[in-house]
Amino acid sequence: MTSTGILPTYQRFINGVPVPFSRRSFRAREKYVIFSVFATFGLVCFGTFFFLPEFRSNSSDSVYKMYDQIKRAGPELLIPPPPHLADEAPRLLRHEDDVRVDPHVIGDREKLRAKVDEDRELKVLERPGLRSSSTAARPEAKEEVGDVPQEAQAVVTVPPAMSDWYPVVNNGEDRDVEARERRNKVKEMMKHAWDNYVRYAWGKNELKPISKRGHSASIFGTLPIAATILDGLDTLYIMGMKDEFKQARDWVANELDLNSMTADVSVFESNIRFVGGLLSCFALTGDVMFRDKAQQIADKLLPAFQTQTGIPHALVNLKTGASKNFGWASGGSSILSEFGTLHLEFAYLSDITGQPIYRNKVDHIRQFLQSLEKPNGLYPNYLNPKTGKWGQHHMSMGALGDSFFEYLLKAWLQSNKEDNEARQMFDDAMQAVLQHMLFTSPSGLMYFAELKFDRPEHKMDHLGCFSGGLLALGAKTLKNDMSNRYMEVAKKITHTCHESYDRSNTKLGPEAFRFTEGAEARALKNSEKYYILRPEVIESYFYMWRLTKDQKYRDWGWEAVQALEKYCRVPGGYTGLKNVYSDDPQKDDVQQSFFLAETLKYLYLLFSDDSLISFDNWVFNTEGHPLPIKGVNPFYREASV
Ligand code: DMJ
């Protein structure tokens, strides 16, 4: 039977008998048509690569480059990044790129570059336990768990000479036997995290504990600045991990060289993690190498302040000094939690170097903010550094707002309560926040909502959970008409944040949780269900324990330790989770540097005696790096001018 349809039939007949389809049975003309179709299709696909921004150059080796890079990029071209990395893609913009190009294209391009660089570097990584001449500064990873020093009182002694004198922290062991055992466990966790970083990712920013290699994506772009070393150093020191500290210190002394780097870096992240970490080590040890390295990094950030208003840009190129903001931030605005989280480090740097430039920069930011009109007394997340006007009126105690408020209170504490302007700004800001952003759910859970043009979004970030500890600190350091309210809110917020952990299958909390009629303190969107080893909830347990002495905070911290061990610990370190509500959650394969800087440090201090990094002498920067309090702490080490 022949076809009567309107489409042509390709069935062939020989003597009225249908001939089965086979390549051999094509006529020459048909073969030619088929060949032409495939050839054209292949040409178009292949040619498309030359329109990718990476390959638009006229250089003669672009074909080779393209082949090489596709080969190296491998599966990440096909597998989408985890949600938190996808969110950070815009941060990967580079200054020399044409900003008119679609940011997604640039993001992909940067991921490709990061992957290529990472794989190139991985070639020099040796097998575990072996040393190669190319990584002379790489220490051997150790398997055994070190002993905790036994002395009963925490004493930090100023070392007479630097080189062989690490560390000098004698301990802070609690009298309580259970607390001591728990603290030993946390120290063992730090060893596990650190040793695996040493073994598999030494010199890289972070560790991929499952793939057992370095991780350089995310906020550091392609910059191999060893974020885990800079972030982890003071934790090693405080935990009395002497050999590890010494080896990490030597890496900083011998290998850290920003002059050889060309990348765009985040001013905020570089400050809180790198400058903050190094300053903390300088204060703890007196080793001027740390101070000088901190200053070198801060100097690289200074060009970002060259804006019409002096409000710094978010990104600065380490080589050219060119700076810019993220395109997604309300028409190129600077972000409150970023430009507002420089004060502690920059003020301290001026005092220990005798150079006023750093303090002047952050004082200027303070004055500028003081002079602005605040809608309802609230600080929006965005400020345009060109016009000096607020961007979109979004307010948050979580992402984009959080640590600005933290640094107001802590600048006052750092100054030994002399910087009254900072305390006043903190109290004023908190008054407005408590009035407009604080809500209580039908079942009685208190939380900070976000505001979008006066409309509350009933969602709280994990990041916002630091606010319990912050308000308690505000309450305990000054008796005023706000202090009782601060403490009441601090307790309730910390309770809510604990609930966000307790209501998950893993007993770890999601990235953000909501309050709706159907659910309270639970994430609703899939993109909010991940946990990336963040510290904020544990940070509040630590502050609340020290400031109230209620045993439940230590117990909640111990719950978190057990959950971390059960779900996040893998043979190669610690990993984040993609869904805290799953009984068998997928792992994100990233050991974040702040896990060592903050999460483990706060847990360790939670189970220590209060004399170890006492609140009377130290104030923690937003990355958990303790900085000394001026005038009372001999470790302040102010320069004599
Ligand atoms: C840390 O880098 C700092 O605490 C920062 O202020 C925001 N949160 C991350 C870790 O969650």
Structure characterization notes:
The protein is mostly helical and 641 residues long. The chain folds into three domains: 28-83, no CATH class; 176-215 and 437-608, Glycosyltransferase (Alpha/alpha barrel), CATH 1.50.10; 222-433 and 619-641, Glycosyltransferase, CATH 1.50.10. Helix content is 44%, strand content 10%. The strands form ten sheets. It has a three-stranded antiparallel beta sheet. A three-stranded antiparallel beta sheet has the order 12-15-16, with no helix packed on it. A hairpin with a 2-residue loop joins strand 15 and strand 16 (455-457). The longest helix is centred in the N-terminal third of the chain and has 25 residues, at 177-201. Residues 1-24, 49-138 and 140-168 have low confidence and may be disordered. The structure holds 1-deoxymannojirimycin. 1-deoxymannojirimycin binds next to helix 19. 1-deoxymannojirimycin is lined by residues 403, 463, 534-535, 594, 598, 622-623.
Write a brief structural summary.
This protein is mainly alpha-helical and 641 residues long. It has a three-stranded antiparallel β-sheet with strand order 7-8-9. It has a three-stranded antiparallel β-sheet with strand order 12-15-16, with no helix packed on it.
Based on the model shown, name its key terms:
Glycosyltransferase; 19 helices; 3 domains; mainly alpha; 3-stranded antiparallel sheet; 641 residues; globular; binds 1-deoxymannojirimycin; 23 strands; 44% helix
Main pleated sheet: 3 strands, antiparallel
Under CATH, the topology of the largest domain can be stated as Glycosyltransferase
Distance between the termini: 103 Å
Q: How much helix, percentage-wise, in residues?
A: 40-55%
**Which strand order spans the largest sheet, edge to edge or round the barrel?**
7-8-9
CATH architecture term of the largest domain? Alpha/alpha barrel
CATH first level of the largest domain: Mainly Alpha
Q: What is the mean predicted local confidence, pLDDT?
A: 82
